[in-house]
Amino acid sequence: MNRRTAILAPLALFALGSPALAAPIPLAQLSQYLNAITTVEADFTQVNADGTIATGHVYIRRPGRVRFEYAPPDRSLVMAGGSQVAIFDAKSNQPPEQYPLKRTPLNLILAADIDLGRAKMVVGHKQVDNTTRVIAQDPENPNYGTIELVFTADPVELRQWVITDDVGNQTTLILGEMKKGGNFPPSYFSITSEIQKRGL
Length: 200
Known about the structure:
single chain; twelve-stranded antiparallel beta sheet
């Protein structure tokens, strides 16, 4: 499975029946919700560009840190910390592939200050069934791809995202119940520590 595609590509959407003519949640309210998140963990289901499905657990610590632990038989690991993304292949004894976090659409929700109202950042904002869907890009580097965020209301909650990478591949991540406010050890997001732990 291509882990680069997994983290760079958008997530697939799911539809929940909803009232007609409902207005989407305002961008300012969504920005406020995202900025209020410090730490989150949740189970996830990932639908890859090739149709394969993976599951696992994600840890997020804003700003700039995330850890995707994939369940067996996969056991791969994708993590971001220190402005880098690292992809550890469980079947390889080689050092991880690494990319600048700023080159991935995921950077948009890991930023220290999220402002969805920023000029040219949001290229799509609509209500679909009972979800609000926002498509965002880096205003200065739209060629890096997009991330589509799917929210439900009352209360506002992020349910999934779809990342479309720079070559058009899409990856969908569907979040389970989110647990907020946890305290994760720094090593969860240290690429250097993970490399040393694995003896790579």
